Fold each of these.
Amino acid sequence: MSASNSGDKDEEKQKEAEMERRMELRSAILSQVLDQNARARLNTIAITKPEKAKMVENMLINMAQTGRITSRLSEDQFKNLLLQISSHESKSTTVKFDRRRAAIDSDED
């Protein structure tokens, strides 16, 4: 029993160490690609829209690894990149009315 538990703990520690290493590498790449103001803007996006920030981070890392980003992006360049991303995403908002609830609640009673 204890041998399997210690094996599980070692495996868990290795996974945590690997995850931490990936996060450090990710942070290092983003620091090389973005200047301080652009990085602050990305952090603000991460607070409000974590999924979008993760997508932008992945895209920036991919662009850096493939050589499409050769110098640090300023905040204005980063804003333009965000605008391009937003224009490619299509948002359709739908509004649904629940008419049954309005029919049940009548003020005449």
Amino acid sequence: MYLTTTKHFRHKTFFAYKFTIFVTIVLAVLNLYSWFTNHINNFFTGYIINANATMKPVTSVSFLILTVPFFLKKTPTKVFLILGFIIQILQLIGIGLKIELTGIYSFSSVATIFMFCLAYLSAFFINISAIKNYFITTTSLLYLISSFAIFFYLLNKNSVSSFFGFESLSWNTSILFFINSIALFEVVLMENVQQYNFKITPYKKTHPYQYFPYFFLLPILVIMAISTIIYYNVISKTLGVYIIFLFLNVLILFSIFLYTFRFIDFFKVISQKSKELYNANKTLNKVNNEIQEKNLYLEDFATITSHNLREPIIALKELQNYYKESFKNGKLNLREVEQMYQSNVTNLNYGLNLLINYHDFIKNLNNKTLDNISFSKSLKKTLKSLEYLKPTNTTLNFKLNADIKLPEAHINNIFNNLLTSSYMYNVEENELKIDITTYLTRKYFNIIYRDNSTKLNQQTTNLIIDNTSEKLKNYNNDRSNNSYGLYFLKLYIKKLNGKIDLFNNSNKGNLIRIKLNHE
């Protein structure tokens, strides 16, 4: 028990409850000692206050039982509380049967028995069943009855004995019930907030742990001290009662102010944390959406990679079979094989370039700090990088009436796809003509791209405009219908919040109109 008591008393909370347990045990033990040594005429028994209302030994035992929940766990506590109830019931039966007992076997007053029942019920509701509503009722009644007895003793110590049930209620007993009722209130309130004992600095100063003890301990100390001073006639009863009521009134006002003040602090912290949580959640949702968008592009990337790499391998195998068969039949045409080989390498290079550009697009998808480059500079840079792919009979005409700066990664990809598509769809024996015109309107930077390539048919154009990658995947079974480059173009334009229109004429070629918002 010593270790348990030391452990409990070392803890920084439950000041009022600990003090109450200590006072209750000391007074109960001293009272028992006084009775068993036959020296009851002292202050601790209440004899010198009112000889007819001396604290009885059974009352002391009942108070010791009330302190058990502080030291023991739930199961043994339940046993002791039941024992306490039995003691009170036996006393009531004895009083009802008018059994006269004297000395150490004397019964407690009816008021004392009733208050013990209330106290045991309160302890039971806290420690065993956790029924808070019933606890408030029983503890409030205990507080009211004990307060009534104390203040009657202060005003006229003999007048309280005129009430039924209070005939032999001692002042000491009333004080112990009073401080126990306050301490029980502290226990239940601390039970409600102990799980929120935040370690974080902003919460720590607002936590009830920091000021609960003072609200419960101070009334106990002040009322006990003033009552003792009144008894010894240091001050008058009227002045003492006035001091007590003034103190309680100030304490209530101060507690209301402090609770409100701390609640406002706590509300500010909670509001700030809620705002931070909302912003974090908003950012998280944004990142999640960006990841989902990237995942869709990565899915396309995986499918297109498989298509663009598998197709040249199949073509190489076919070329190998053609070579073997032609060599076996003696009909090998080296120039034709060379052209087929070169065409396959060109297609492979074309596909790899598309994938590289698409990879850059995915990588920079959500990059907010992309370097800008002027339209004209990007065009020159892209033409230079695709020089190896340009057909020999190609004519380029530029009419750049306006210029604009755009993210380099995106605008480079636009030119790369436009020019690559023209180069790849051109029929070698015809001269390839490419015209690029730019101009500004009130809202848009306009790009008109024309070429005379004839292999981009209307079906492919419709698929690109629909922006349906799944249809394109199913449609692209050979290189002649490969439209991934223009499909990527649509994605790049969309990323720049632009618009694209494709017009195809099987005889005249293609016209692509791009409108980019420049406001």
